[in-house]
Amino acid sequence: MKENIAIILAAGQGTRMKSDMPKVLHKICGKSLIQHVLDHCTDASITKKYVVVGHKHEEIRKALEDTVEYVLQEQQLGTGHAIMQAKDILEENLESNIIVLMGDAPLISSHTLDKFIKLHEKNKNSVTVLTATTKSPHGYGRIVKDQGGNLLKIVEQKDATEQEKQIQEINSGVYCFKGKDLVDALSKLTNDNAQGEYYLTDVIEIMKKDHLIAGVYNTCEEDIKAVNSKRELAEADFIMRRRINNKLMDAGVTIIDPNCTYIGADVIIGRDTIIYPGTIIEGDTVIGEKTTIGTNCKIVSSQIGDRVDIQSSTVLESEIMNETKVGPYAYIRPNCTIGERVKIGDFVEVKNSTIGNDTKASHLTYIGDAKVGSGVNLGCGVVFVNYDGKKKHQTIVEDDCFIGCNVNLIAPANIKKGSYIAAGSTITEPVEEDTLAIARCKQINKVGYIKNK
Is 411 labeled as ligand-binding? Predict the structure, then answer.
């Protein structure tokens, strides 16, 4: 089997997006348009990926880093011109399949790409064009065939005759070429058209004149949908979101209202987990089985165990273990590890902390830069005072401690196993094991003070 190499076009300005950001970096389902395309390539066993960049190429390079190789198109003179800039790459891969993709068309699935490439090889085509049939072909290149249904050429909207404009089979901008035949055809490509640009579509007609085999693979219209405006961005997001949610539901996840649930492409969720409306789950999040994610939760790049219950809360880049309850209105900030059967209640914030099994912080508590053991009770209004104005410091609360309401633990504090901290205390010194610590002023009642005043 030949090596598969992708050249992804991402040099355009995307003026209709009305944005300072390069079009291909806009996101759907938590991931940039071009990253979706790259991921589909990887899943379809496309081994090498080259991105043709131009407008604001520095931003694209910064976003993708060294995950791909780059080809610079300094002037945007058409799709054919873009591929010409990769001449050296093409000449090094004459025996490979060259797959040309659009960086702003994120909906092409790896399944479609795989079948597309296999058909190309099976039919021994010099070029195979990915097409779709639509009732609204305006703006797309038309697929012109002979009476036998064989591909003759692709005609752009601006260059099409009235008869050709009635054709409903359209070009996706995605092609699979034999490397050598593509190089030969590009050497004959001209810009003799209404736009004065080098169209990659003209390569098909050149190949036909050289008696080479050109074929098509017809897919669904959704697969080829590109993004050229914020409205189309939302439409693509809706389609991708529906695909993701359907896949999860087919695998046994209950999604109460798929239209109001926003789950990223890389998220993994176990069976019998229930996702309520208004939830956003992004990044490389993994959620176990029989977990409940309530309304209006946001979970980003986190690991959630089995039988966890999260209600109306935010969890960022953290781990929550089995049978733990979070929320409502809790805030789990990055770099937290929360053990099993823990209670993180309403208006509790946890940041850069580890919390052991069976510990409870039921409400109105801030836990920052802390190591909290198992079986600890944190009362209402407990504050881990972790910042001295210049640096953050850690507080350690060992197993089986009881921290009363409205306690301030001034870091670096060390509360030994089995200790009690009286309500209203401000702790500045270590507390030994099995000790009751009281750190508050003695109450003084001045009888009649207010009346006399």
Answer: no
